Structures are given as structure tokens and as C-alpha cells.
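Quick one, C-alpha cells below. Sequence please?
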């Protein structure tokens, strides 16, 4: 079975060592991603918790398990202080789910739940 990490890196021609940061930015709105790039330049550890979760999510072979990781992005106990709260600079769980379903189906993984059983789009 193909992992989310492998499927994502193949589809987007992303080096494996850049997977977490690339997916982090892909799960943000364009405005948030713009500011996140700036934050990462000066505080590379700012999104350490999110990158750790994305690293773990990268090991899943069934996109249905990504829902658990996506739910963690809305956890109110995450750190980050006023920057996150004021500007909402964080990855979106729905974006992670959407990306996981798309890339895993495209790379021959499990079809999205909306696909008829036994078919691979």
C-alpha cells in the first residue's frame, strides 16, 4: 500500500524531506501560507507540533485514518499565542482530508469514500 507521504511527494514532485512543510503550507489558505512562510524563515520551530502531526499522518495507507490527524488541527490546546489566534495561521483539517483523498486515489491508493465500491478513479 502507498503511504500519504509517498503519494503526495509523487503527485507534487516534492522531496521526501520537505513533505511536512510543503503539506503544512498546502493545508493553509493562500494568505495564511504567505505569512507562514515568513514565520518559518525566522522561527522554524513555530509549526513544530503541526509538522509532527503531518509526519505521523504521512505514514497512513488508508485516507480514512487521516480524519484523526485532521481533527487535531482544531484542538484549542495548541500553542502559538496571539499570532495564531489573531490571524488564524494554521493548517485546516478539511484541506488535509481533501489532499489525502485526492493524492492517494490518484496514486492508486484507496478510492475516495464517494467512489462506488471496487472502483479506483
Amino acid at each position: 500500500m502507498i503511504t500519504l507521504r509517498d503519494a503526495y511527494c509523487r503527485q507534487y514532485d516534492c522531496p521526501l524531506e520537505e513533505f511536512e512543510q510543503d503539506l503544512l503550507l498546502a493545508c493553509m489558505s493562500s494568505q495564511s501560507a504567505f505569512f507562514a512562510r515568513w514565520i518559518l524563515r525566522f522561527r522554524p520551530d513555530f509549526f513544530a507540533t503541526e509538522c509532527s502531526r503531518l509526519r505521523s499522518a504521512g505514514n497512513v495507507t488508508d485516507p480514512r485514518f487521516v480524519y484523526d490527524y485532521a481533527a487535531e488541527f482544531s484542538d484549542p490546546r495548541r500553542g502559538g499565542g496571539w499570532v495564531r489566534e489573531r490571524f488564524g495561521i494554521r493548517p485546516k483539517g478539511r484541506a488535509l482530508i481533501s489532499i489525502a483523498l485526492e493524492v492517494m486515489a490518484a496514486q492508486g491508493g484507496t478510492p475516495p469514500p464517494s467512489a462506488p465500491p471496487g472502483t479506483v478513479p
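Confidence is low (pLDDT under 50) at residues 115-121. The chain has seven helices and no strands.
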